[in-house]
Amino acid sequence: MPLSTKPPGPRTGHSIPGCYAAPLADCGGRPSTLEHYVSKALLLRFGNKFHVDGPDWAVQGKYFTEKSLRAKVLCERHNGALSPLDRVIGEFYDVLSAAHRGRVGIRDFDGEDLERWALKVMLGVASSGSAVIAGKRERAIVVPELYLKILFGEQEMPDYCGFYYIGGCVPALDADLLSIALEQYASDDPDAGKLYGVTLRLLDFQFLTSVT
């Protein structure tokens, strides 16, 4: 069973400006909290500094700390509802790291948890103004309601969408250099918004998540 990402209790009926989940009218708590959109539990596994590869703003040779990859994009209620995903992706990375070292074993993960975590990354990047579209950085003004309903457990991914492993040869990383690659895909569909997918690379493993 997937983890619950629904905020607890009845819907509040409130929408707080600055929270990208405001269209769901279920905001609460502090108006804005610092959200680790790539998950603090994962970032801390990379040490004090790490390299981010992929976005135009992460130029070659630029290093980050976990505090530099966060933004005020969610209210306290919605931020707390997504916290279970942080633990899952940390454990998922541990399994990938073991496989990267040749230690093969079996561990089950719920696909919906991984889908929602990747969607959380995509929406965090877009809402923080870190997404690069048509050669320039843009901030998502309104996140499509479909994305929010999937992220917060009100709706399932559409058919043929979700979290997929990309097979084939992936350029090997330096053993001492851990990186995450983020890539956004632009869409001309007004109902889908300007972003509809994200590619994430953890170690030598690549995963694609597409929403539409």
Overview in brief:
The chain has 212 residues and is of the alpha+beta class. It has five helices and ten strands.
How would you characterize the overall build of this protein?
The strands form three sheets. The protein has a six-stranded mixed sheet with strand order 3-2-8-9-10-7, covered by helices on one side. It has a two-stranded antiparallel sheet with strand order 1-4. Strands 5-6 form a two-stranded antiparallel ribbon. The protein has 212 residues and is an alpha+beta fold. The protein has helices at residues 40-43, 76-81, 83-100, 111-127, 145-151; strands at 33-35, 50-53, 63-64, 71-74, 131-133, 136-138, 162-166, 179-186, 195-202, 205-210. The protein contains five helices and ten strands. It is 25% helix and 22% strand.
